[in-house]
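note to self — DONT lose this again. spent like an hour looking for the file last time. sequence + predicted structure for the chain T wanted, 272 res
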Amino acid sequence: MSNSSRRFYLVPYLAWIVLFVVAPIVLVAYYSFFDVEGHFTLGNYAKFFTPVYMRMTLSSFWYAFLITAISLLAAYPAAYLLTRTKHKQLWLLLIILPSWINLLLKAYAFIGLFGTYGLTNSLLEAIGIGKQQILFTDFSFVFVSVYIFIPFMILPIFNALEEMNPTLVYAARDLGASAWTTFRRVIFPLTVSGVKSGCMAVFIPALSLFMITRLIAGNRVITLGTAIEQHFLVTQDWGMGATIAVFLILAMAAMMLLTGNRKRGAVNARKK
């Protein structure tokens, strides 16, 4: 294929990137320099570094980390078991299938399950524990978030485990390594790329959650995503909402660059 043909086929891709990635980011950055009245200002950036928004930022990162960590702890054993079972593709499809359902529908389903008269409280009452306040708590927020994001953690780990050479595991066991040592020294290092991909696929969207915080946590959990929604839809302070979005974009880009550099370093090390 000639260079001119390659450039021609790149046009749709570049047009998509410019229209739906670059242009929205530039527009968000542009609005961040204006106040409610439409005057140019740098006050939005100064306001972001006040204690209120700093606490909100720390809260967002903490919940994103918690959701990612719990998803990883549940997803890795699940992915490992999937590679050892029959009809693994069917089981993987059943795990991924809920991700095809609309997020709003899943949120309302959990409202019904965790509500005062929902199935969960009915079971608790039947076994003698009694009704509990499950909805509008940190627990319900983290639980529902993990449920929503866990397929995106399982899939890359499953792929990494499938690509791993099983003879390396057999060799470690033949040389006397225990199951834990084999996992720690052989399996996990060979699948760490899948773990990184899964963590990024969960952490980045979890950092900007807003619908789940409103419907499941009842606004008891305040994140940067919630603040953006409030500024754009309630207070109409688009400048402040755009400023928060700029910092979220920068944080996500920094994490992606750090992960990408490590991957490139690993590839270069292998070549050497």
